[in-house]
Structures are given as C-alpha cells and as structure tokens.
Amino acid sequence: MSLLNSNKEIINNNPYSFLKIILFKKSNNIQKPKNMSEEKLLNLTLRIWRQKDAKSKGHFESYKINGISPECSFLEMLDQLNEKLVEKLEIPVCFDHDCREGICGMCSLYINGRPHGNDSGVTTCQLHMRKFKDGDTIVIEPWRARAFPIIRDLVVDRSAFDKIIQAGGYVSVNTGGMPDANTIPINKANAELAMDAAQCIGCGACVAACKNASAMLFVSAKVSHLALLPQGQIEAKERVQAMVDKMDELGFGNCTNTGACEAECPKEIKISNIARMNREFYRAKIS
C-alpha cells in the first residue's frame, strides 16, 4: 500500500488523524537544539591556592581541565576538577558552598583578581563558564583579610561577621503572636531603603575588595536596615556603637572611600549606607 493510500485510510477511519500527520511532518522540519557534543567546550588552566591550614604556608598549584561546558557554573567546574582528582587518588580542592542560588553567601572565591569573578552583581555560584574563553588561565584564591583566616585551601573562617551580628544586629522583642502587617505604618521610601540594605548576604566580598579589608559596607547594611525601621530605632544607639566597636576589635580596617566594596558587592549594596551608619554613630556618641 502506498503512503498516500495509507494516509487516506487513516483519515477515513479517524477524521482528526490528518492533523497528526501534518504535525508529525512539521515536527521533522523543526531545528533541534545543539547537542552537548556540538557545543564549543572549554579547555582551561586553573591556578588554585592550596593551603593545609591557617598555620601552614600556602602555594599556587596548576591544574589542566578539559571539556568544560560554557553553560555550567563555576562551582560545577570545580566539582568536575575534584572528581578527576579523587579518581587519581589526589586530595580534592576545598571550597565553600551551600545553596548555590546566590542567597547564602558561602561561595567566597577571589577569581582573576576580583571577588566572585569577572561578572557584576552575581556570586561565585551564579558565575557561568561562558564568561571565560577557551585556553584561559583562571587564578582562584580565598578572601585575603586578617579577620578571615584561611581554614584550608579556598575556605576561610568568616565567623567574625557572626560576632558583629551578635554584638547588635538584631531587634529585641517579646515572643508571642505575630502582629498585623499594617500595625506599624512605615514610610515607603524608608521601607525600600531598608529592603535594599537587608539584601546583604554577608559573603565578605566587600572585605576582599577593600585594600584595608574594611567591613564597613557589611556593618552599615546591617545597621541601616534596622535603623530605617521603627522596630529598630529603640536600640539604635546601642546597636551602632556595639557593632562598630566589635568590627574594630576583630581587626577590620577603616573605610578607604574608594568604592571598591560597592563595585564588587553581588547584591549591589550602596556605600550611602556607610554615610548613614556614620551619622547614626556620631548621633549616638553625642546624645
């Protein structure tokens, strides 16, 4: 039986079948997406900082890694490197990560001289390999700051940030039922500024970018998002003094006013928060 007669028989038995035949023929003409094999894969050289612990002397070690998809994330590329190292019974590279969604702030890597790499407004886990070229050499380091001692390889101890928060980055409230959302009216402009400051994820890129290893952008974001709200104004004086004193105690440097922290912040926190924190601090001191 010819294909034409076959199609006529199908249509006679089911009047809607001709639609299926037309759709089938059209689907064969649709251009299919490129396969992974057709994708331009990257061959890279990685220079990674290796350090056994905080007291040991560290060094750069070079690794060749081939066949990396431009669509994979930077951390997925490091996962592939570690798989190859484990297969060769070598010690994998230690690096921090958790959510891999740009929320937790754990993925703190200094890539080619920039915190979080050569993209803007993203964390390391959101950085994709399409930002690099085939044959590139990528230098990967941990954060460099006295207040962030290296634990191993690319992992640093950022508990200093936790201590600053413990010093005053909170609002004291009595436990109980949740109040109504509209119980306390908040000016829209202040609400938006507070929300912008609250986006800080505490990754430490501001410290890594600053030549003085200053944490003022981080501290000012935490001070601002509470100082702008009525709930945070009750403890405002005690909060700003305690957090700034703790920051200084932990060995962070002073602000350089160069704006490197704002330029490298993955959440694009503004340095205007530092000015607000300074006003809060001076107000607390003289009142």
Report what the structure shows.
This protein is of the alpha+beta class and 287 residues long. It has two domains: 37-152, Ubiquitin-like (UB roll), CATH 3.10.20.30; 158-171 and 184-286, Orthogonal Bundle (Fumarate Reductase Iron-sulfur Protein, Chain B, domain 2), CATH 1.10.1060.10. Helix content is 40%, strand content 11%. It is elongated. Residues 1-12 and 14-33 have low confidence and may be disordered.
What's this entry about, in short?
With 287 residues, this protein is an alpha+beta fold. The protein has helices at residues 3-13, 17-29, 74-87, 159-168, 188-198, 205-209, 216-227, 230-233, 236-249, 260-264, 272-286; strands at 42-50, 59-68, 110-111, 114-115, 137-141, 150-152, 155-156.
List keywords for this structure.
287 residues, alpha+beta, Ubiquitin-like (UB roll), Fumarate Reductase Iron-sulfur Protein, Chain B, domain 2, two-stranded antiparallel sheet, 7 strands
Largest sheet: 5 strands, mixed
Using only CA atoms, what is the Rg?
Answer: 27 Å
Q: What is the 3D form? A: elongated
According to CATH, the homologous superfamily of the largest domain is: Alpha-helical ferredoxin
What fold name stands as the CATH topology of the largest domain? Fumarate Reductase Iron-sulfur Protein, Chain B, domain 2
* Quaternary status: single chain
CATH class label of the largest domain = Mainly Alpha
Helices, by number, come to 11
Mean pLDDT: 87
Instruction: Extract low-pLDDT stretches.
Output: 1-12, 14-33
One letter per element, helices H and strands E, the order comes to HHEEHEEEEEHHHHHHHH
Class inferred from helices and paired strands:
alpha+beta
Measured as a percent range, the helix fraction is 25-40%
CATH architecture level-2 label of the largest domain = Orthogonal Bundle
Strand order in the largest sheet: 2-1-5-3-4
Total tally of structural domains: 2
Strand content: 5-15%
How many strand units?
Answer: 7
C-alpha end-to-end distance: 98 Å
